[in-house]
Amino acid sequence: MRRVLRSSVLALATISTVVLSGCSSGPQVDDIFSAGGWPGMHADARNSDTSPVTGSRDLSFAWSRPLGGPVANYASVAASGQIFVTARTEKGCNLFSYQMDSGRKRWCRQLAPGVVASTPVVDGAANVYVGEDGAINSFNEYGQLRWRTPVVGTPLSAQFTGDGNLLFITQLGQINIVNTQNGQKVVAPYDLVPPPSLADGANVDILPDDKGLRGCFFGAPDCPVANMPAIDLESGKFYFTLFAPGAPQAELVAMKYSGGDNPAITHEWSSDTLPGGSASSPDLSADGSVVYANDNWGTMWAIDSATGDAKWSYDIGYAAAGSPSTSADGLIIPAGGPDGHLLALQDKGDHAELVWERKDLLQLGVPAQTAGSTGYAVVRDGTDGLAILTFDTGTGETLDQDTLPGAKGFTVGTSVGPKGEVLTPTLLGELFVLR
User: Fold this and answer.
1) DSSP 8-state symbol, 34
2) Burial zone of 424 (CB within 10 Å; 0-12 exposed, 13-18 middle, 19+ buried)
3) N vs C: which end of the chain shows fewer Cβ within 10 Å?
């Protein structure tokens, strides 16, 4: 059942913020994601995992690069085609930038190990923003550090706000909004999990900034916030899951960033509708009225974004290991899993309708949709290999299938480049590009 939280407004000071002026029809919105490419973990502010590019129906393997360690998140792509990806390496670089056409490494940097939990997010000038243990960093397109801002915990993948700032939540539950030009905090940090106080005693240990990071992939209790928020740029509302201390499962939470001259963060609602909680990021419908989320027991949910009430649920038959791809017209393609197949649902308002289903395929990645009714998913190839499946999103029909040479296991995200390139890193640590 939905539980409405008491609204609380922090007394916050504006610190060097960049705010766009309003007009009679409402505040203007700066959609930095509209620059092109695949600039964030799930492509855009609403976490849609879709691209406006008309996708190719005849891909071919272009190149691959081993990253030296496991990869936990998507590769992001600037409008220029510059690629950014993180990995967990034993030594040396763990943040990498590659050229799309050649696969040549443009630059790399060594950050703290927690960077593996953060997908880089890119603005229109190819400045990149990425978290590590205890800080958020920004580099320019040449890999030069622009600024570094300390925080509590490790920032997971960030979102741009409607007024051009950067919003992110650490795995320990601290919300921060910073100015993209200088890294200064626009509002005071908002702690979803209260930090230790005098009432807890004088010798309370400070939580390490990397605490619980390994459990984020599974949505474990020691990782209070395991995913990145979806944000409505018009209203400033953002949605994420929170596994509060002592709670039996993660809840879906709605909050709001007001922006303007007196920016504030407020609670809107919290819902414990999702059985078993959820480890994946929620999606927003194109009009911002519905939040889509899969629970850990194999059900897809549509939640009213204004109230937190369930609109419908649909048993997809397996526990998805990632977020769905959600088109502007409500076609939902869930992520795969160890026993997941490929299917598509259509949001009909008060229920979901199965559009098509491919139980002949074992889906082992996260799908992406593009214009032209073309989609991409990673599927089992042969006994234990992997391949990129190109399919018609309207019918599920196979259009093409391309083997990922030497790839095994599971992939952790599918991204689409500005010219229709398809990128996917494997969990074991290799980046594949097709075009």
Assistant:
1) G
2) buried
3) N
Q: Does the pLDDT value for residue 396 go beyond 60?
A: yes
Residues belonging to the chain: 435
> Worst-scoring range by mean pLDDT, 70-74, 203-207, 208-212?
203-207
For residue 243, pLDDT over 60 is answered with yes
Distance between CA atoms of residues 236 and 256, nearest Å: 5
Of 260, 241, 237, residue with least CA distance to 249: 241
> Residue 160 in contact with residue 166, Cβ under 8 Å?
yes
| Mean pLDDT of all residues in 271-287 | 91
At 28 the pLDDT is 66
The stretch 330-349 carries a mean pLDDT of: 97
In the block, which residue shows the tokens 């609109």? Answer: 311
* Cβ neighbours around 7 below 10 Å, total: 10
Q: Global pTM?
A: 0.91
Among residues 174, 158, 172, 168, the alpha carbon closest in space to that of 10 is found at 174
348 bridge partner residues: none
Residue type, 17: T
Cβ atoms within 10 A of the Cβ of 312, count? 17
Q: How far apart are CA 95 and CA 111, in angstroms?
A: 7
Q: For residue 24, is pLDDT > 50?
A: no
d(CA 38, CA 53) in angstroms, rounded, equals: 10
Residue pair 262/274 in contact by the 8 Å Cβ criterion? no
Task: Find the angle CA(408)-CA(412)-CA(417) to the nearest 5 degrees.
Answer: 110
Determine the Cα–Cα distance for residues 155 and 256; give it in Å rounded to an integer. 19
| Helix, coil or strand: residue 190 | strand
Distance CA 14, CA 187 (A): 6
What is the pLDDT, as a whole number, of residue 206? 79
- Comparing CA positions, the residue from 232, 253, 231, 234 lying closest to residue 242 is 253
Tokens representing 156 are 């997971």
- pLDDT band, very low/low/confident/very high, at 219 (cuts 50, 70, 90): confident
* C-alpha angle 174-175-178 in degrees, rounded to nearest 5: 125
Cα 432 to Cα 425: distance, rounded to the nearest angstrom: 6
- 386-398: b or e for each residue (b if 16 or more CB lie within 10 Å)? bbbbbbebeebee
DSSP bridge partners of 254: 239, 269
State the first-to-last Cα distance of the chain, in angstroms, to the nearest integer.
46
Residue 202's pLDDT is what? Answer: 60
pLDDT for the residue numbered 32? 84
Give residue 25's pLDDT.
Answer: 39
CA distances from 269 to 212, 266, 373, 375, 413 (A): 25, 10, 35, 34, 29
Q: DSSP state, 200? A: G
